[in-house]
Amino acid sequence: MLAILLAVTLAAPSPAPSDAASLSWLTGSWAGSQDGTDAEEVWTAPRGGSLLGLHRDVSSGRTVSFEFFRIEASNGALVYWASPGGRPATPFRAVESAKSRIVFENREHDFPTRILYWLGSDGALHARIEGTLQGKPAGEEWTWRRTH
After folding, report:
1. CB of 78 closer than 8 Å to CB of 16
2. Number of domains in the chain
3. Among 15, 22, 32, 46, whose Cα sits 20 to 30 Å from the Cα of 78?
4. What is the three-state SS of the chain?
5. Is 12 part of any domain?
6. CATH code for the domain of 112
7. 4 occurs within a structural domain
8. Domain residues for 98?
9. Mean model confidence pLDDT for the chain
10. Is residue 13 domain-resident?
11. If phi over 0 gives left and psi between -120 and 50 gives alpha, with beta otherwise, what is residue 61?
């Protein structure tokens, strides 16, 4: 029984980190293709208490979407600031983490309300957004491989 309790305790997500350096596993250039769209995501190394990132989708030789990101400590927790298409940034507060996994949330935002990143056992970077669209649960997921 003690072994089961210990295994459950070790596998459970820990409280969200408050130090950007804990997300060094995001660092690098990542790329992948899905449904005819080539996606790139780039994250700087944690420095000065933050990480900076950008995402670009290219389809038929044209940029069809882009987004700027920053993750930084604020009031004792990490906050993910998303700025799709150059619009004003929206904050998502880190709510849980595990080794090479982080979940950000903003329940007041229309869509998404959750942003998840994790590094797979095969070295691929995964991202997922979740929320509600037209009254139904919705989500989208990406998988990228390291390019640098």
Report:
1. yes
2. 1
3. 32
4. CHHHHHHHHHHCCECCCCCHHHHHHHCEEEEEEECCEEEEEEECCCECCEEEEEEEEEECCEEEEEEEEEEEEECCEEEEEEEECCCCCEEEEEEEEECCEEEEECCCCCCCCEEEEEECCCCCEEEEEEEEECCEEEEEEEEEEECC
5. no
6. 2.40.128.20
7. no
8. 18-146
9. 91
10. no
11. left
Alpha carbons within 13 angstroms on the beta-carbon side of residue 125 total 23
Is 17 a residue whose pLDDT tops 90?
A: no
Could you tell me if residue 105 is inside a domain?
yes
pLDDT at 53 > cutoff 60? yes
Question: Which pair of structure tokens corresponds to residue 90?
Answer: 């929206």
- CA angle (128 as vertex; 124, 130 as ends), nearest 5: 170
**If we measure between CA atoms, which residue out of 65, 62, 79 comes closest to residue 20?**
79
φ, ψ of residue 22 to 5 degrees: the values are: -65, -10
Q: Do residues 105 and 130 make contact, with C-beta atoms less than 8 angstroms apart?
A: no
pLDDT of residue 1: 47
